[in-house]
Queue: 3 jobs
Job 1
Amino acid sequence: FYVVNEVVIKRLGHIPIHKGDFHLLPPKVQRFVAEKAELMRPRGIYICDGTQHEADEIIDKLVERGMLSPLKAYENNYICRTDPKDVARVESKTWMVTRDKYDTVCHTPDGVDPIMGHWMSPEDMSDELDSRFPGCMAGRIMYVVPFSMGPLGGPLSKIGVQLTDSNYVVISMRIMTRVTSEVFDIMGDQDFTRCIHSVGLPRPVKQKVINHWPCNPDRVFIAHRPPEREIWSFGSGYGGNSLLGKKCFALRIASNIAKDEGWLAEHMLIMGVSRPCGREHFIAAAFPSACGKTNLAMLQPTLPGWKVRCVGDDIAWMKFGADGRLYAINPEHGFFGVAPGTSDRTNPMAVATFQKDSIFTNVAETSDGHYYWEGLEDEIKDKNVEVTDWLGNPWKLGDAAPAAHPNSRFAAPARQCPIIHPDWESPQGVPIEAIIFGGRRPDGVPLVFETYGWNHGIYTGACLKSEATAAAEYKGKTVMHDPMAMRPFMGYNFGKYLDHWMKLNTAERKLPRIYHVNWFRKSRDTGKFLWPGFGDNIRVIDWIIRRLDGDVGIGQETPVGIVPTKGSLDLEGLGPVDWDELMSVPADYWKEDAVEVRKFIESQVGPDLPAPIRKEMDDQEARINAM
Ligand code: SAT
Ligand code: MN
């Protein structure tokens, strides 16, 4: 029980506390809440405790208002349609705010816009905030959401408090993070990340609210202040724009904390893989959004005797332990996965996870109360069932437009995953032996290769590219650079980020080996995928683990890394595979790529590129040119 000081009382003015006890908030949280309430002027304050009772109450209210509707075929599953203008992250309106521009972006030549990090000055940010936040919660409730990223009180965990006027955000945060008032008890002297979110539509509302989804797409603005550990988000209720614990905190802010404290915050899944002999290995893997991290994290092996268990599917916080090994935790508490393409064939464990207590956003719905999306065509039992698409219109198989939005999502509690790892909430984390980078590369890039060492691995990660997906506002399928799968989530100068990675390499540490995979290569003749993917990816993991064991005979050197020697992958039970094309490192492709990559690195990282990483580039280019 804390005394509330006079200034705080004055700032709160006459705003009533609808739920919770203000006196139980630590003084620094009281000040934060009062200051922001004074600014945004909600009609009431609701302090969340994270209990089931509270969630039920909010969900009932949302169902009554029509923002959520139950999917009757399941227990506690709900569907939500957003305003069709608010469906993905908005990278062009997402900013990092630092006094020195070059704390955020690299020194790019005149006329070249940095693609990693999106910088705004504190003065410009103030103007942007001033034109949006004063009074922005008028007529709405301000929820105070206390949450922990990572197991409560764990040595790698961090605390945040999100203020929001979206109850959809409240119930989604409850799935995706650990929301509990215990956060206030353990906070002590610890700092917390201040997350301020508003849908940006004060009452009375002038424009029409579509689908009971208030938002303000023309005025979207998302700003991060790393030194202050503060996030401001306005105008969007969607995923990465509004669930501030996820990309904003756990990647953009946390990567800054990690740099200061000597650890890593990365866009990576974490999986435990057990071999037939019973030995288990932990692997982290970075792929851009919507490239199959969730599928790999929950892989169902097609090789007998193998077992995969999921620790996390999107974000890894990793720190070297006293024993010199790299330990990873999943800071999240749920999965926010891409729905289309998820089925019993592609990811049965994800399907099992979201059979109850889950929220589906922008998917389609059947008249018998099931969710529906592209990829479930064969799983509809009653072919006469009626489908309502994500826009609320009747939809039939064969219609040109998709039934579900390509970036439609499920939010499901991680603990419901049948193969969640027993140690997934271990506060110390799990020891990582291999790091994998990958993306959607239709041409030129072999199924798998091992890099030549830590710095070459970092260089390979820095060169990561992938076809654009629906997870952000890009159109079409061009292959884009996405260094370390972090391009949209970079929290600071990418050159310094590479330097930070490099400096983790000290003599007493056992560094993970770094690999690159590409499940998405297509035949130059037929245009068809060369590799079946999904459960058969265990065959690649098996090769990686045998390499970790020191099996040198199964690899052969190429200019870009070590690829499997012919026949060294277990292909038992697979149909025909065009090994030569799948594993080839074509000289024409890589010579062109080397030119393009150098141009990219020179223009985007330039003088910020650490010399040892430049040497990796030079050496690799020389190897390629000798092909
Ligand atoms: O919208 S999110 O950023 O949460 C998902 C993603 O793009 O990875
Ligand atoms: Mn992601």
Job 2
Amino acid sequence: PIVNVTEETGVVECTFAIIKPDAMRKGFAAQIKHRILADGFHILQERQLQLSTDIAQEFYAEHLGKPFFEKLTNFMSSGPVTAMVLSRVNAIKAWRSLMGPTNPVAAAEQFPNSLRALYGDKENTTMNATHGSDARLSAQREIKFFFPKRPIFPAPTHQQSHEYIQA
Ligand code: IDP
């Protein structure tokens, strides 16, 4: 297989991101995408869609039984979202860190420049502007869920600093 590495340590990964209905409604999608690109990500795939509650429940199946499950899945199906595949060195961690903590109040206290601090609802943890995969396995699952026809590996063409090593 082709292993894609950079001059710095780190492997180019893909992660999955959603701009949630609250941020879409408030018109923050463009600013959020601007921050994504400024942070060195490439947006490999992007689609706007509205989830049914069934699909939202399937997507968040790991949270089934938690007190916020119904509120979360109703909210996630309440309006259009933007779903994206992002790529970068250490994309999974980098996107989680750009988003900030789950709770927008905590985000504002700890990382005032994070997306959830800037665009999340301080009154309501559910409406925290963005979603991001928390690990490689969930990234794979979530990408497949939203982009079923996408090839498994991204084309390694998008950063000049990369060397392509035939492993
Ligand atoms: P994450 O999105 O930061 O990974 P998770 O714990 O996976 O956080 O929760 C998924 C989503 O469920 C959160 O992004 C948020 O929208 C919602 N959520 C999580 N915890 C709470 C809560 O305590 N109250 C209300 N909503 C919550």
Job 3
Amino acid sequence: MTAPKTSPRLEIRDLVRSFDGKRVVDNVSLSIAPGQVTCLLGPSGCGKSTTLRMIAGVEMQDSGTIHVDGALICDTVFRVPPERRSIGLMFQDFALFPHLSVGENVAFGLKGAGTDRKARAHTLLDRVGLAHFIDEFPHQLSGGEQQRVALARALAPSPRIMLMDEPFSGLDNRLRDGIRDETLDLLKEEGAGVLLVTHEPEEAMRMADEIALMRAGRIVQRGAPYTIYNAPADRDAMAFFSDIN
Ligand code: ADP
Ligand code: MG
């Protein structure tokens, strides 16, 4: 008997997207296992956010396929809408709803009875150390606290995939390391597959199980962080890592 094969949480194959006749995402393929963090790392303008937006379903690819837990969610003729993809989003500018309390923000995307939703919100806020803020409003929280609430909100519906687009770049340096580590712990516990977009090599080195190095719409190298750091594929990759010490 063969062992049951577990599907990757996320598998994208040959994604292509052009704007004005220019391929900004050019045959990108990736697969992410449960609990795995893959960093899409590359300079500004190389196509990272466009790739993420196609996976989220808010941008349509020209060609290529997207599978979540082995099920097709998007190709060029078939398309599961964004809200039914079991994908959590955390973007730098994806702000909390200012008119909702912290608890209501976290419970926002949840279905079911009010008491169940509130209990789930409480559990997640407790996990990020902010349960005491449940009835406060976002403007009463610091930037770092708001980012923790955004993480709790994204994880509340137990998404199978978490997409994060430079989520920590608005935070000051002192806070960032702590929040990165907490975020990783929580994501691993929840068993989501994580695709984290960043242009900062240092962030990818700290957070990734695997780095996919992207340049001009293509993935030019994939591997464990230290493998890529120690053996960059070419001079551009080497230059990109050279300011880490
Ligand atoms: P990154 O996230 O790596 O900085 P993006 O995916 O945001 O890169 O953008 C890749 C390229 O695609 C850029 O040249 C950008 O200007 C272009 N682009 C992105 N979205 C659009 C759009 N809606 N219309 C035209 N060009 C776009
Ligand atoms: Mg971007």
